[in-house]
Structure prediction request, 478 residues.
Amino acid sequence: MRPKKNKEIISHNNFVRGRFKEDISQITADFTASLDIDKKLADFDIDGSIAHLRALKKAGIVSLKEKRDLENALIKIKTEIKNGEFELNKKYEDIHMNVEKRLTELVPESGAKLHTGRSRNDQVSVDFRLYVKSRIKHIAKALIDLRAELAAVAKSNIKTIIPGYTHFQHAQPVSLAHHVLAYYEMFTRDFERLMNTYKTADVLTLGSGALAGVDFDIDRRLEADVLGFGSISRNSMDGVSDRDFALEFNFALSMTALHLSRFCEELIIWNSFEFGFIKLKDEFTTGSSIMPQKKNPDVLELIRGKTGGVISNLLSLFIMMKSLPLAYNRDMQEDKKPVMESADTVYNSLLIFKEIIRTIKFNKDNMAAGLKEDSIYATDVATYLVKKGVPFRKSHEIVGRIVSYAENTGKTLSTVSLKEYKKITGFIAGDIFDIFNPETSVNSKKTTGGTAFKEIKTVLEEYEKEIENNKKSLLELK
Prediction:
């Protein structure tokens, strides 16, 4: 069944009526509308319009009275949106057209002048950049807060020792603080990525027009200063078609989600009956519909699960952009949904994950019990032999024989007698038994960045200064 012809010209054609003889169909209007997504750009669109209006006044395109009337009307529209009084109408396709339609209602005699010297192409670009810059600030702040919480947890658990793993097998004893701070490092890189992405987004593209620039003496530096942009785009075709900032933002979000997911996976494992390393607060767990004993780590599982969507959004942006010719193409209307979805997901995940970390309880007895299987000290035995003059490759082979002997005789490394040790190698003396102590093992590590208590205390002091510097850097962003 063919859609009925709409008697009212709708959508963008309201503003470009001269070219079109026929109305677009309702099905076309519905298909091309982006209002459900780009309504989040409303405040940024109005801010961009106010900046452009000031440039129009400087260029002599609007009078002082017109500037005042239009600026007051734009501020009124922003208030209406904030108070839920602004009526969004899909007839006008997107937030930009909705705002412009309302503006011409409030100031009919001069409202149509506002779009002089700009295109929707550069208007959308600058709105989107303002949105990304704003979300970067919020997410970067959440990353700082999470890192501060991780540092606090680490500071309280320097002397809590757990089994360290590689290949999910017992490897060597490590401080719980050292383990937690590995994620601090990941989230620090995420913070730095966001700050770098901010620089990519911090470029004013307003003034690029549709693709070739505009025919009026628009002071782009004035617009940049009003909107808080650090620089101005140098090529108008690139200005309207560049979405590198969106891709970089979604990549940074994907990395943050990835790191959250890895941490969630470990906490889920640690929360299991088999490990019992941690206990989650009730508010972050759910029960089973059939098994009354269950406390499922659903929030951690959901953060882990949502990571797939964030990564998929990055991929969708790459696929969208991979073969677009210059300059603007309507495909780019689809750039906002994946960015906005990922930004919301990562921000909300960071907020709730921080609360999980803040309220988590560590079962230190179970952690200590994981160190009783003292084959975890095998590397320490190999190091012991190296210090006795045995080349490492040879000591590695000797310890392999010792571990095999202990397994075959039903013993542990610490219960193998000195006499038995000496049958395997003459380099072992009575001081071998001093090795089988978690604190001795941890503090024997000499290198910067290792798990020794002294190194952890040093790096925590660095982190404290780093967090304060990051806060200052964030405040300095325009």
Notes: The CA atoms of residues 9 and 397 lie 83 Å apart. The chain has 18 helices and six strands.
